[in-house]
Structure prediction request, 122 residues.
Amino acid sequence: MTTRQIKDIAGNMRDAIIGSYEQGESLRAIAKKYFVSHTTINAWLDRWGVPRRTRPARSVKDLAGQRFGKLTVIRRDGLKYPVKWVARCDCGNVVSVYRSRLRAGIRSCGCMRGRRKATHAS
Ligand SMILES: [Zn+2]
Prediction:
């Protein structure tokens, strides 16, 4: 085999690995496919300058679409920690709230503060 051929094979393998990675395969799965350790794949990806996937933290429950009082959760606010959610309040305000505050029972953007409970006029 010529040096050129070896380089081609290495290049093909690199492209295949990068392709698999970009398609969302786990490092472990790729490593298994190419008979190398996943730490090696990790090191290669770094060496090749492959942009890393930002992995959505598995433990974060998706609250999008859920209602908390007047707040409707739209989406997660970036990938920040502690986790924040963007929510729209019934009054029209869009706010970013910590998950812990939703858990703690926040029910509006703050527009309810100081107001008496709405009572229905009958
Ligand atoms: Zn509000």
